[in-house]
Amino acid sequence: MTDDTALQVAGLGKRYGRTWALRDCSLRLPIGRIAALVGPNGAGKTTLLHLAVGLLRPDEGEARVFGRDPRAGREALADIGFVAQDTPLYRDFSAAELVKLGGKLNRTWDAALAHERLSRLDIPTGRAVGKLSGGQRAQVALALALAKRPRLLLLDEPIASLDPLARHEFMQTLMGAVSETDTTVLLSSHLLADLERACDFLIVLQKAHVQLSGDVDDLLARHRTLIGPRESEASALAGTFAVIRASRTDRQSTLLVRLPGAMPALAEGWRAQDVNLEDLVLAYLTAGSEARTQTQGELAAK
Amino acid sequence: MIWLTWRQHRKQLLYTLVALAVAAAVLVPTGLSMHHDYVDSGLAACIAAAGTGQTIGQNVGDCGRLANAFSQHYNGLAFVGILFVLFPVFVGIFFGAPLVAQEFERGTHRFVWTQGVSRLRWAVAKFGLIGLVALAIGVLYAWGVGWWAAPLLSQGSGRMNYLSFDIQGVVPVAYTLFAVALGVFLGVYTRKVLPAMGVTVAGFVAVRAVVEWVARKHYLGPESIKLPIASTDQLNSYAGDWIYSNSVISATGKTLIADGQLQCSGGNVTSLMTSGTGGMDVGANPCADAAYQGAYNLQLYQGPDRFWDFQWIESGIFLALAALLIGFAIVRLRRIS
Amino acid sequence: MIEFVLDGRSQVATYMQLVLQVKQALRVGLVRPGDQLPRVRDVAQQLAINPNTVLKAYRELRLEGLTEGRPGGGTFLVGTLAGPSLGSQAELRDELVGWLGRARSAGLTREDITALIETTVRSTFDGTEGN
User: Fold this and answer.
1) Domain boundaries in chain A?
2) I need a surface site. Which of A136, B67, B145, C111 has the fewest CB within 10 A?
3) In this complex, is the C-beta atom of A198 within 8 Å of any C-beta atom belonging to chain B?
4) Could you tell me the sign of the dihedral formed by the alpha carbons of B70, B71, B77, B78, in that order?
5) What is the pTM of this model?
């Protein structure tokens, strides 16, 4: 366990009845990152976040936040800000009352900051939050989570149910807030597009397993799309590349591959293209849904 | 936590107070009129004269007629009195069942459990405060209904009897706390408000029924009184006894009448009450029957002086159940994951 | 002060889009040496992007000698892109126009020419990409 780790999970597993919602999950999120947790619905994103915030107890392995078990007590919990899916709040409470409530439930609580954020967004603090728009309610939930001055902020699909404008505004607030602090952020979404510009760390979950996790730039640098004639595919690869996803016509092969290290020379007739985040996620999700035997895509920590 | 619980449930409390005020608006006038009638009709004095002794002389006033007139006049209200038996279960379903279940249903437990308060403290504060409110409501209800129903209960079958016993003294308070604990417990386990409410009603009725009709009569062994059939005294039916059985036993200890009373005077029957002879043939004139020579009436009963013993035993049972349920609920809450 | 705008469909990395915008603004005179760049927080919030991306762009500009940080905080432009390159650009442009004319008369379509330029640029700059 190193000091620059915000969240570390090792061999984490959680079971509901006979079904594993999460299994063999290992990853390390360094401090100061904004991480996207992506995967289809039911992949285990919520389970992972709930384990990280101590709402769930793991059946296997462990999750540690800044080196501590989140279920150990309120000290560990004090470091974590959490916004659950659909931003559950006491709907008949006003935003001002929720801020007051937070002050009573937490030792560290920056009520002034929360009020400032809400007034900057023109959110009526006297009205019951159940009567606010979805976007405003999400902003209230975010302001409450930030008022804890958390070192790790976990957001479960915070923008999934919002309209595009509200999504953008939410991400604006979040990015602005993160710039002012050194808060590490882990936010989940089943849509990568929402997070592509916001995150610099990526975790791909599929069918209860981590398919890929690592620094975004690093991941992009280590993957390419190779395009070339199908007949020379075997010789062109020659055991150098790990193929993540392949699509073939009768003449052409298109392969998304992981590089062994530096980009090696390519065989005659082959060319390499950079990948973008969307290609990468798609490739790993497809690979994950096709077979679980694929080697884990996790890259060694830098 | 205190503020949160107050803020979350203040509306509910307000509605409850309004409901109690409405109930008081009905109970106070009718109660006053019953109390006045009870005294003015002479029934109070008659029953007082009958005293709490187990037997009374033959010519103590005719309380039966007065009592009949009184209970016929207030027949409707006596029915209302029975309805009060259900009051605790309402507290249980409206305060107990939604307490935790609603947090689960709306997902707010995810908000409140990820703040800087442990689940244990959250649960203890919440349950404690709601418990206190339930206690206050229960005391108010027990005291109010106890006063209101006193005239109805002091004549007729007595304060120890089924259902009459249940709306007096301290047991209504214990029932209320039990109902709330049951609601909380079921809310924690079902995590859904409506099922928790439904099962609370069913569970409350089931437990109350079992305790009422199966367990209660065994709290203490019954007292007994023997009254020779030739005696001119009568068993005092205004003493407030909870009568288990009346029977007529021969001098040799043989049961002559399993369920009834017999009084003889000079070889003739002056009073014979049987309800179902149990296949026993009483004969044309039992008083002249040799087998009835020296026979006596045997009454098994719980005397009115045991009223508070029974109240405390029953309250103890329900409070223990309530504590057990809350304990299970807290253990479950800490384990939920 | 410069206001950054992102091209959602561009394949160019976000940080590089910011760098290019500053350079473009310098070229056309929208900003001058001595001007301050917006605070990292403001850019991150306005564009809803990772503040580290903004930091990366500003670092790139500093490495190219176009900006410097000042003790009071803030990033200021110091370099300029006008100057030696402008003259040679005109000359290179003339050569390119001539080349394009030859390519056209050789029968290449617009798409052919674009593809040729792209692949040539790619292979020429391949060794230096990503630095």
Assistant:
1) 5-215, 222-290
2) C111
3) no
4) positive
5) 0.83
Binning pLDDT at 50, 70 and 90, where does residue B62 land? low
Apex CA A38: angle with CA A33 and CA A39, to 5°?
A: 160
pLDDT at B192 over 90: yes
A38 pLDDT more than 70: yes
Question: For the domain bounded by A222-290, which CATH number is listed?
Answer: 3.30.70
Which residue from B336, B107, B98 is spatially nearest to A82, judged by alpha carbons?
B107
Which parts of B155-258 fold into alpha helices (H)? 171-190, 193-210
Residue A244 near residue A257 (C-beta atoms within 8 A)? yes
Residue numbers of B between 94 and 113 with CB closer than 8 Å to A: 106-108, 110-113
As a whole number of angstroms, the distance between CA B297 and CA A300 comes to 96
Helix (H) or strand (E) holding A227: strand A223-229
**What DSSP line would sit under C2-35, residue for residue?**
------TT--S-HHHHHHHHHHHHHHHTSS-TTP
Q: pLDDT at position B305, please?
A: 84
Determine if residue B191 is left, alpha or beta; phi over 0 gives left, psi from -120 to 50 gives alpha, anything else beta: left
B138 sits in which H/E element: helix B119-154
The alpha carbon torsion through A96, A100, A106, A110 (nearest 10 deg) reads: 60
CATH superfamily, domain A5-215, is P-loop containing nucleotide triphosphate hydrolases (3.40.50.300)
Residue pair B182/B325 in contact (Cβ under 8 Å)? The answer is yes
Domain co-membership, B128 together with B265: no
Which of B1, B11, B114 faces A82 most closely, judged by CB atoms? B114
Shortest distance, CA A299 to any CA of chain C (angstroms): 19
Q: Could you list the residue range(s) of the whole structural domain that residue B327 is in?
A: 2-219+308-335
Partner chains of C (3+ C-beta pairs under 8 Å): A
User: Which of A238, A247, A246 has its CA nearest to residue A267?
Assistant: A238
Please provide residue B161's backbone torsions phi and psi, each rounded to the nearest 5 degrees.
Answer: -75, 165
* A118 in Cβ contact with A98 (< 8 Å): no
pLDDT tens readout for residues A140-181: 999 999 999 999 999 999 888 899 899 999 999 999 999 888
Residue-wise pLDDT tens digits, C5-44: 988 777 788 899 999 999 888 887 788 888 889 999 999 9
Residue B326 CB neighbours (<10 A): 22
β-pairing, A34-38 vs A184-189, is parallel
Domain co-membership, B37 together with B142: yes
Residue B8 burial (CB count, 10 A): 21
| Tokens representing residue B90 in the block | 């309402």
Q: What is the CATH number of domain C14-77?
A: 1.10.10.10
DSSP state string for A168-204:
HHHHHHHHHHHHHS--EEEEEES-GGGTTTT-SEEEE
How many distinct structural domains can be found in chain B?
A: 2
Nearest neighbour of A172 by CB, restricted to C14, C46, C53: C46
